[in-house]
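testing teh design pipeline on a random one, pls ignore if ur not involved
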């Protein structure tokens, strides 16, 4: 194989190019933005000014594709920590020690992450990164249903158009991908697509934060009920932290300083407000309402030979769930698997595009379902209407109940954590033990019941929480040197977890009140 072209120099495109370099003599990345030799946010990455999370599944793939990258990121200041626990550690639980084995996420600014990856990929001898170049069109091939290359031009003024011949074109241009229009203009059917949104939006600001006296860098999260507003603090490199505010159903956080602080003050937990009181802004407030989930079904039909689509171009998820970079890494890994199969069997690439897009569709089903399922449940709790399709509604109702079960059942908790980290498949959700638990407790295991429980918990322990200086819905997650985390008042959480484990939602309010009074 001779030449592969990658459209887009973001993380999805860089990782695809890394894999292609093993199988093509030349790999060229065309990136619209100008690139610098230092970490800087790019115009083509609207999410670049917001926090980024690399899940455990993505970390594993990145280390496989670029050995040693993890150490380089840590040396650059990236933070590795545990995600929010789905239930607090229970000292009486003999299995509680397994909580320390939870998968870890990596936190860093997007410019630093992308810059470190680009340095490694650009250093590969047969990879060329050309910045300030836009791809205008796909070029049809001689054979029917095939692509022979791309037409490029200067990004600043559209001048100096040039035809580039390629054996494979990979579209990694992100949410703004023009691939459907490219295909339509040369006579191909564009892919069908599905979208879902709960009209969430968020505002983020980077702060210089004081050093933690315990030496830990912690994720802090809190939720306001019943509005479902949330405030989160994510540590990143250089002693900085992102403060991120999220609202649903167009209850968008503002971008002015006064409104930002008022939004934080509307949330019961004092943790985020305390960060603002002790921190110094390192940037302006950035907002994003681009949280729509969208999947384009390139895997249906016979495929277009010589052309594949990866990353957000194929499946764009709500960025608030932090799955995008991990899905991009998985797509690159799958690309290597398929190219390796062709190389070993010494076959041509006929059918390659169709096979790859189908494999990618299967791999993205889980993150797509997790993202849209979470957004749907939150939307419904916020007053949204149920979905119309019965089959989809039943599937999401079942997954919702598995998630609620994980609040109290430790074995389910661990499996759910590994699934949301994309290191375990979702097959266990239909295993007989899980299926039996969920069906027996079907009416009780609902997010509505948990929301009512949390509202009761919020009101009954508010005074005690205020005296202790802790929000009753806080979630502090252990850093690299700590074994567990707590969610609000430990006595209340343990009592609530016991009630859920026993399947007796009706007892939750009673046990919450007893725990608060004790």
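output:
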């Amino acid at each position: 194989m001779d030449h592969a072209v990658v459209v887009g120099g973001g993380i999805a495109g860089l990782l695809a190019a890394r894999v292609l370099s093993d199988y093509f003599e030349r790999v060229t990345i065309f990136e619209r933005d100008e690139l610098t030799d230092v970490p800087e946010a790019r115009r083509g990455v609207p999410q670049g000014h917001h926090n980024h999370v690399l899940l455990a599944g993505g970390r594993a793939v990145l280390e496989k594709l670029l050995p040693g990258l993890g150490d380089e990121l840590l040396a650059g200041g990236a933070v590795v920590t545990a995600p929010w626990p789905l239930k607090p550690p229970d000292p009486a639980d003999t299995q509680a020690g397994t909580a320390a084995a939870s998968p870890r996420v990596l936190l860093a600014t997007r410019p630093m992450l992308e810059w470190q990856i680009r340095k490694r990929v650009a250093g590969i001898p047969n990879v060329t990164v050309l910045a300030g170049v836009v791809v205008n069109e796909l070029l049809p091939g001689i054979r029917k249903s095939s692509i022979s290359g791309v037409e490029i031009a200067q990004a600043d003024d559209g001048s100096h158009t040039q035809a580039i011949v390629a054996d494979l074109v990979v579209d990694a241009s992100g949410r703004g991908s023009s691939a459907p229009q490219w295909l339509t203009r040369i006579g191909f059917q564009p892919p069908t697509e599905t979208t879902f949104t709960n009209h969430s939006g968020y505002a983020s600001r980077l702060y210089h934060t004081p050093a933690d006296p315990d030496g830990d860098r912690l994720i802090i999260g809190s939720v306001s009920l019943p509005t479902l507003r949330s405030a989160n603090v994510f540590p990143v490199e250089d002693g900085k932290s992102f403060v991120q505010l999220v609202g649903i159903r167009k209850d968008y956080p503002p971008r002015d300083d006064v409104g930002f602080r008022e939004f934080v003050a509307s949330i019961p937990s004092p943790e985020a407000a305390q960060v603002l009181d002790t921190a110094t802004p390192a940037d302006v407030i950035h907002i994003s309402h681009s949280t729509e989930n969208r999947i384009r079904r390139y895997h249906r039909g016979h495929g277009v030979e010589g052309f594949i689509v990866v990353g957000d171009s194929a499946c764009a998820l709500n960025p608030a769930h932090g799955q995008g970079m991990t899905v991009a890494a998985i797509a690159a890994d799958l690309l290597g698997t398929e190219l390796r199969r062709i190389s070993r069997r010494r076959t041509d690439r006929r059918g390659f595009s169709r096979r790859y897009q189908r494999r990618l569709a299967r791999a993205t089903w889980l993150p797509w379902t997790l993202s849209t399922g979470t957004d749907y449940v939150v939307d419904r709790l916020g007053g949204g209407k149920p979905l119309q399709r019965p089959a989809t509604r039943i599937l999401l109702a079942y997954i919702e109940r598995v998630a609620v079960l994980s609040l109290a059942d430790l074995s389910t908790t661990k499996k759910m954590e590994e699934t949301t980290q994309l290191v375990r498949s979702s097959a266990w959700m239909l295993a007989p033990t899980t299926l039996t638990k969920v069906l027996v407790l079907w009416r009780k295991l609902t997010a509505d019941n948990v929301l009512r429980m949390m509202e009761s918990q919020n009101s009954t322990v508010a005074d005690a929480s205020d005296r202790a200086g802790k929000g009753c819905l806080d979630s502090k997650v252990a850093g690299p040197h700590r074994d567990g985390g707590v969610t609000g008042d430990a006595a209340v959480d343990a009592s609530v977890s016991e009630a859920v484990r026993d399947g007796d939602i009706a007892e939750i309010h009673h046990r919450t009140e007893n725990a608060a009074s004790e």
